[in-house]
Each structure stands twice: as C-alpha cells, then as structure tokens.
Specification:
There is one protein chain. The protein is mainly alpha-helical and 276 residues long. It folds into two domains: 115 residues, no CATH class; 135 residues, no CATH class. Helix content is 50%, strand content 5%. Strands 1-2-3 form a three-stranded antiparallel beta sheet, with no helix packed on it. Helix 2 crosses helix 8 and helix 5 runs antiparallel to helix 6. The longest helix is centred in the last third of the chain and has 21 residues. The chain is elongated. The relative contact order is 0.18. It comes from Papaver nudicaule (Iceland poppy). This is Aminotransferase-like plant mobile domain-containing protein.
Length: 276
C-alpha cells in the first residue's frame, strides 16, 4: 500500500460516525462546512428547501439545455464519465463561442476529480449536472462537506477507499494541527489555504509516524487566524470564469507538445488546483 494512501486512511479511520467527529490521540476534532469553505476559498450561501427544489426541478428551458449539454459533451451516458469530461474540455478550450460550456465542463471536472469522486475516481452521478446549471445558487461547501461526512458515516472500518473529497481531510488536518510545516515564503500565506500545504509530505509523515506527536494545545480551530479569509471567498462561477483563459491556453500548449497527459484523480488534488 502506498504510504500516501495509508496516511489518508489513518485519519479517516479516526472518524466516529455516531458523534460525527474525529477522535485523535484522546482529542476530539469536528470538521465543519465553514472550515472547508475557507480551505478551498468557496462561499457558503443560503441553500434551503426552496433553493434545493429550484436546482432539482429546473424549469423546462433549463432542463432542455441540460439535455443538449448531456448529449453533446457527455455522450448521453447514464453517468458522467471522467474521460468524456476531459475530452470535451479540450474540444471547447479554444472556442470563444463555447466559453459558458467550457466553464460548466471545468466545474464538472473538479466535481468528478476532487469534490465528489467515486472510489475509483472515474465517474460522477448524473444528478450533479443539475447543480452545474445552477452553480452560482449552490452552497458548494455544504454540499461537498455533507457528501463526505455521509460517506464516512456509512463506511465500514477499516476504511480503505472512500467516495467524496478525502483530500480535504488532509488540508483540514494540516490547518488544525500544523503537523507539518507550511510552504515557505508567500506560498505559506496563500489564499485559498489549500495551496499552503504539501499533502503528499503530510500523508507520508502520518503513515510513517502515526499521530503520536500532536501538539497538546490543539482546540480543533485553525491554528493560523482567519483574518479576512472569510470575506475574500468567491463563488465557483467566479473562480472558473477567471481562470478559463489560462486553462485554455495551458491545454493548447499541451497539445502543441503532443502531451497526452491524462488528468487523473489519483494525482494530488493540490496539483489539480495549483495547475489551474
């Protein structure tokens, strides 16, 4: 078993499904959607029953647009396949008339690879397409966090592989423990906060040492103060629109170099986001 995977599993297996907390070295740590929001730089918004109904029961015009998108880019499959998302991203990257579709595909990619991956990381439930068409109305931190905790609550131990955003748990653990040092210099002050940490180093250290040497003054809060982090959060649509030109240019350069580089969910999620 790779040490990196083993380190992640070590933390996942400390989860108490009844109390919905992580119990590590006699201390109790509770993850929250607020913490996830700050780590990934995503806004939490009001998302009650009325908002959920609007997303899951779109009007006929939006529903028709979803069907066209599905048939055009995702081949009408019963599930969203990662390979179809990647192929369609490359196909739309340099077409100025398809910038909105490119953004939707990019968010789908992040959903499949980082936020809501299945255990193998190669597909995504079709239901998430409805959220993509209402992405600026969805409280993504709450959706991502609840999906992960639901999987943790249902999993049988020992947990070996788990659906959901397990990479978040490493970033979260780093923030509440400083079990490893942050990157030096300006990167150690980066926002969103996920860019401050090398999760590969963290997971390998946990695999080698366990969590025996945790600080005794831990409270479960972020050790570095939040400052203005929560005021600087942006929505997924703003993030991906701001980066779409850069990603399109990167994809074009990859093709020019004849790089058949698969964007695999087995890569470090920090590199997914950092490359973008």
């Amino acid at each position: 078993m790779k040490k990196r995977q083993k380190g992640t599993e070590h933390i996942l297996n400390t989860f108490n499904p009844k109390k919905q907390v992580f119990e590590i070295q006699g201390k109790v740590f509770k993850s929250t959607a607020d913490q996830l929001a700050v780590i990934f730089g995503l806004q939490r918004i009001r998302f009650g029953e009325e908002e959920e109904y609007c997303v899951t029961h779109p009007d006929p015009q939006i529903k028709a647009a979803q069907t066209r998108f599905w048939n055009t880019y995702l081949k009408g499959e019963t599930q969203i396949l990662m390979r179809d998302v990647i192929d369609s991203l490359y196909a739309t990257a340099e077409d100025v008339n398809k910038s909105e579709d490119f953004v939707k595909l990019l968010v789908l990619y992040f959903c499949a690879a980082v936020f809501f991956p299945n255990r193998s990381g190669d597909k995504l439930s079709k239901k998430f397409l409805k959220h993509i068409f209402a992405m600026d109305q969805v409280s993504w931190p709450d959706l991502i966090h609840s999906y992960l905790l639901e999987a943790l609550g249902e999993a049988e131990k020992p947990i070996i592989r788990l659906r959901g955003c397990t990479i978040y748990i490493l970033f979260w653990f780093a923030e509440i423990t400083h079990f490893i040092r942050k990157y030096e210099g300006e990167q150690g002050k980066s926002k969103p906060r996920f860019a401050r940490w090398n999760t590969k180093v963290l997971a390998v250290k946990i695999a080698n040492e366990g969590t025996t040497y945790l600080r005794q003054d831990l409270t479960g809060s972020f050790i570095d103060p939040l400052g203005e982090d929560k005021q600087s959060l942006i929505t997924p649509i703003e993030i991906h629109q701001a980066n779409s030109d850069r990603i399109g240019e990167k994809m074009g350069k990859d093709r020019e170099r004849d790089e058949d580089r698969e964007l695999s969910p087995n890569r470090d999620a920090a590199h997914y986001l950092d490359d973008m």
